């Protein structure tokens, strides 16, 4: 095999999800069936969130055939489920068909549910405070693999009686705008086929300028979050290596272009790091960038990661985060302190590294990929509200 091919092999999605199949591919799979079967199957997957074996409106023989079709198998085997925050944060370690591990986190709040999905297996950006960055890059996820994470979360919401899944944030593993085409195809499918409004979809980027520009040209207006963390190039070069390629001025230009063409408000993510970016001077520099753009700031204390700690990066104390918020407000910028969900199960921002520390799946789960995660009958009882544990789903 030529080395370029080997390279492509390593980076492109080699396995797909049933959510990678469009109507044409489904039609090919159902070529010997009446044409209305295509819509039945398509609606089954997207509206009823059904697995092939659950398409009960199909004749038994066809259902059995679809259940065995490799192209319609689940993209993932659930290697582990962890639960935190009294049952309201669930993290799944999902293994792709080619053995890559990614993580998906479902969070239930009083008034909504949000799923945080991965866009790549690993990440090539190497931010110095992020566990995914430390783990390095695996491969791009396909659009279907991204959509299927949302479907898994939606099914679980339904099973738990949490109502409809409210929001999707592309803030899991990976840099969404470094996998633009797959991410955008997934976003369109979430909107068109899963019925999620664009304002409930958020793409978070570390500042991939060409990607922000492409987003600015799209008619479907999703939310854009830019992970800033530093408001001068000297500091940002250290925290976010991509800043050396796209310095702050070019990121701000792209943000302005995005705002001008979409009219949508941008948010800046700011992981508060003790004595690094939580001083008054940091607040004033940040305000100088946020104010002209009308950007909203999300403050989150840095979650500890082994790599970050080894570089001396620690989360700011609560009092410092509150002070940052107050200084920003004084400077005319609104800032929200984000809830720190899932820390105890390494499910919080930046902690996703698909580490091998979680419990291995049982043989039954191997036999029936992801079924216990996806199917009401196989999931077992919902986790008791007071339980906080790592490991495998019941
Ligand atoms: N790659 C994209 C999206 C995935 S990271 C991005 O960087 O925006 C999702 C969010 O988690 C980003 O805002 C990122 O800066 C933040 N993050 C990464 N590591 C973190 C950590 N250790 N503590 C708090 N937030 C972190
Ligand atoms: Fe990648 Fe985002 Fe982590 Fe940076 S913060 S390494 S861009 S996942």
Can you walk through the features of this model?
By secondary structure, this protein is an alpha/beta fold. It folds into 2 domains: 18-72, DNA polymerase, domain 1, CATH 1.10.150; 75-358, TIM Barrel (Alpha-Beta Barrel), CATH 3.20.20. The chain is built from 16 helices and 12 strands. A 10-stranded mixed sheet has the order 1-2-3-4-7-8-9-10-11-12. A hairpin with a 4-residue loop joins strand 3 (101-108) and strand 4 (113-116). Helix 6 (143-160) runs parallel beside helix 7 (180-192) and helix 8 (209-216) runs parallel beside helix 10 (248-262). The longest helix has 18 residues, at 143-160. The protein is elongated. The structure holds S-adenosyl-L-homocysteine and iron/sulfur cluster. S-adenosyl-L-homocysteine binds next to strand 8 and strand 10.
Observed structural traits:
394 residues; alpha/beta; DNA polymerase, domain 1; TIM Barrel; 2 domains; ten-stranded mixed β-sheet; 12 strands; 37% helix; elongated; binds S-adenosyl-L-homocysteine; binds iron/sulfur cluster
Can you summarize this structure?
By secondary structure, the chain is an alpha/beta fold. The protein has 2 domains: 18-72, Orthogonal Bundle (DNA polymerase, domain 1); 75-358, Aldolase class I (TIM Barrel, Alpha-Beta Barrel).
